[in-house]
Specification:
Blueprint lengths: L6 H19 L11 E6 L2 E5 L14 E5 H10 L26 H6 L4 E5 L2 H7 L4 H8 L5 E4 L6 H8 L8 E4 L3 E6 L2 H14 L12 H8 L4 E2 L8 H4 L1 H8 L5 H7 L4 E2 L6 H8 L5 E4 L3 E5 L4 H14 L13 H8 L2 H15 L1
């Protein structure tokens, strides 16, 4: 646990954290939609991004929630199910927004460093979904104090996986099928570390031809679908290897939460209506190989962000790389978790505004 900084120092670091959070949240290669979270410790208080909020909004909205760490960590150590409900440890008198802390609050509390940033870096994910991730990462992160944590559901299971490495005190964590955590004693140090690690993990996306937006618009017409908000989302359907990767299943949690389990790929000649009849539902997105992607008309901004993320990740994974997809049980665990239902509820409410 960190000692309490003086008031002026804390205010300066909080301002720096908000700026850092907004910058990270505005970079789709690091964070998408409500994903990712940042935190800072002030003695026994952990200030952490609220669940369902966007890091990108950190400068324009109050998205940080205060949590009392001592009882939270005691609950984690005891294996108390209450640790799964971080909102029970919120300091209500200092939380006028009434928002809940991030579902990954336990992860931040367990890290001994003062400042922690968890991001869904696409370069990291493209490596962390591989069955040979440890070997690949070891070549790139030589010299860093890093640890690899195999996939666990976000929340308490992930925190327990991270706790196994506490004696090492790593300041870089690679989370299997999930993302990246960096930690430091100041915001500036955390920002510099994130930038350096990202550079070491960098992989260039395979170039793709332009999407056939004219044909896609024809397919979308009167079908309840539309073009994606970000044209970069089309790339997953314009690269055969990326399309095959997407068709294989879900690679990371936020894809499941905001786009659904796996990806739907249209068969040759199919329209959105044909796809809907074949699978019995209207998926949030449909990949049309060689053409591009269509989004369901009511898909949220979070769904659009995750469609872009899928393209960014899949086009960075080398052809033939050995992959680990989320299992049926892991998908079910995410879609039926109350904490994720809360994020989905906030996302749906935002889409209506």
């Amino acid at each position: 646990m960190t000692s309490a900084p003086d008031t002026a120092d804390l205010q300066a670091e909080m301002a720096a954290l908000r700026a850092f959070s907004a910058a990270v949240g505005s970079d789709p290669s690091l964070t998408q939609a409500a994903g990712g979270n940042t935190s800072i410790k002030d003695g026994d208080t952990l200030w952490i991004k609220a669940s369902g909020t966007w890091l990108a909004h950190a400068l324009e909205r109050d998205i940080m929630v205060p949590v009392e760490m001592t009882p939270l960590l005691a609950a984690v150590e005891a294996g108390d199910p209450a640790a799964e409900q971080a909102h029970r440890f919120t300091i209500a008198a200092r939380n006028p927004s009434g928002l809940r802390p991030s579902i990954e609050t336990t992860v931040h509390a367990l890290m001994p460093q003062r400042v922690v940033a968890h991001v869904h870096c696409v370069d990291t994910i493209a490596l962390a979904v591989r069955t040979d991730a440890v070997a690949e990462l070891g070549q790139r992160l030589d010299g860093f104090n890093w640890a690899y944590v195999p996939y666990h559901r976000p929340g308490l299971p992930l925190a327990k996986g991270i706790a196994l490495h506490r004696a090492q005190r790593p300041d870089v964590l690679i989370l299997g099928n999930h993302g990246l955590v960096v930690a430091a004693e100041s915001v500036a140090e955390a920002e510099a570390l994130l930038r350096t690690v990202k550079q070491h993990l960098r992989q260039d996306a395979r170039p793709t031809p332009p999407a056939d937006t004219k044909r896609l618009a024809q397919l979308a017409d009167a079908a309840g679908y539309r073009l994606p908000a970000d044209r970069a989302a089309h790339a997953v359907a314009l690269d055969a290897a990326a399309t095959a990767i997407a068709a294989g299943g879900s690679l990371y949690p936020d894809h499941v939460i905001f786009l659904g389990v796996g990806s739907t790929v249209a068969q040759p000649g199919e329209t959105p209506a044909d796809v809907r009849r074949r699978i019995g539902s209207a998926p949030a997105s449909i990949l049309f190989p060689g053409l591009g992607v269509l989004m369901r008309a009511d898909a949220s901004a979070s769904a659009d962000a995750m469609a872009r993320c899928l393209a960014d990740v899949a086009t960075r994974i080398p052809k033939g790389a050995p992959l680990r997809y989320l299992s049926e049980d892991e998908n079910h665990e995410l879609t039926n978790w109350d904490a994720e239902k809360y994020r989905q509820k906030l996302d749906a409410a935002a889409a209506k505004r």
